[in-house]
Sequence to fold (474 residues):
Amino acid sequence: MFFFVFGKITTLKKAKMRMLNQNDLLENLNKSGLDRRSFIKYLTAVGLLSMVNTQEAKAFSSNAKGKIVIVGGGAAGISMAARLKRWLKDPDITLIDPSDRQYYQPGFTLIASGVYEPGDVWKKQEDYIPKNVTWIKDSVAAIDPVANEITTRKSGKISYDFLVLTPGLQINWDKVEGITYNTLGQGNAHCIYDFNGAQKTWKAIQEFSKSGGRGIFTDTYTKHKCGGAPKKICLLTEHYTRRQKTRENVMLDFYTASHELYDVPYYTPRLLEIYDERNIPISINTKVKGVDTVKKQVYFEKTELHDNEKIVTPFREDYDFLHFTPPMSAPTFVRESGLGWTEGKFADENWVMVDKETMVHTKYSNIISLGDCSDLPTSKTSAAIRVQVPLAAKNLISLMEGKAPGEKYNGYAACPIVTDYGHVLLCEFDYAKKRESSFPFSLMDMSKESCLAWLLKVYILKPMFFYGMLRGKA
Ligand SMILES: Cc1cc2nc3c(=O)[nH]c(=O)nc-3n(C[C@H](O)[C@H](O)[C@H](O)COP(=O)(O)OP(=O)(O)OC[C@H]3O[C@@H](n4cnc5c(N)ncnc54)[C@H](O)[C@@H]3O)c2cc1C
Fold:
């Protein structure tokens, strides 16, 4: 792993990144106050840490037996398959997933800003299914957690002893009136939460920077994956227009359904300052109801409290370019199988109910769930999943051995908020929203954006994902 990452950096000259060439890289290094030697020292440390991780992964093993079925082979599911494969002797693992491709979704933001090419963010799924894991290339339609049985769309019923539930989340495009997945991009209404959508967004941002006008950016009222993504694409669009020398021709606004822009106190002040410095007004408590893609108008609802009474005010805004975020939930089959919330605050979103430390289902002790589909009260990111996986895998093995699950997840998540071409505010935190900096960043003031974090985001995290995490190593 270390040699791979090190090799990547030392051959940066060859990298064909349109937005950052080697001169930019060196300039960024200088600005960060890090000389080349210290930078390489940091990378060496990161590399050595991954090796330690790998050694630890090899050291643990168990003879536990039982049929494991993994539903969903994305970031969480494939990483779980790889870990369990390493730690169990002769495991019996079946993975159900219909997709041909394994996407590195954090790269969608970088496609939408022209930093990555579309081909940079995906690999063939077949290359990531661990050896001797049975892959059923199909979708799950239902789960009967009492009978321990799964119904697939085309491959009949499959039974299990232990279930790993990792089907990610469902994007509910139709919950934005006037939008469907098939019409995404019409009326210049875009969304980077989709691979094709990210590509359309990049084209549209380039056009918008030429034509000028009003750009509106929104998040949504449900929990959504990478809460930072809508903020990143807004800031990147702003910087892109500055680079094109057209900033004075565009007006940008950010609308959030939440009562604040960001809820991790260590990072929020600087993020607010950046929006202020860039002249991007933020409207809070404002959710998107619909989009009229013909008139190019967004319909909003603003909620305010007056004398303890909730007042909801509908209003419309014209736009020339729109980036919206659709509502999200657990997949429909999770709700129908009785594994998710059906009442309470997540009744509409149906996230799988798990113990927030052990990740074991609160009702069925042979089911473990992690990643985007779960109700773990932290940010839905692959950075969080990287930490969840080894703990969830060990807990599953304990259950298979008839023991109580002993590993506890503290809610660690990370969200690298790209603030411009060259800088990232690297937000790392736990369940208590306390700063949780990983080495070597714990040595630095990470309450501000840094170019080192940009280098991590653009050059290191993707190879770590494909060659470390998905192989059960990082
Ligand atoms: C625009 C964007 C930016 C992001 N930025 C970041 C970032 O900067 N940092 C970060 O850490 N994270 C980021 N993320 C979030 C990260 O990508 C997700 O949190 C992560 O991919 C979730 O992993 P998962 O395994 O839970 O779900 P996924 O990776 O989505 O995988 C779900 C899998 O389940 C399969 N599946 C779905 N339904 C079924 C079914 N019925 N039956 C069988 N299989 C099924 C799918 O085919 C898929 O393979 C970003 C995401 C997006 C979209």
Observations:
- Residues 1-54+413-474 form one domain.
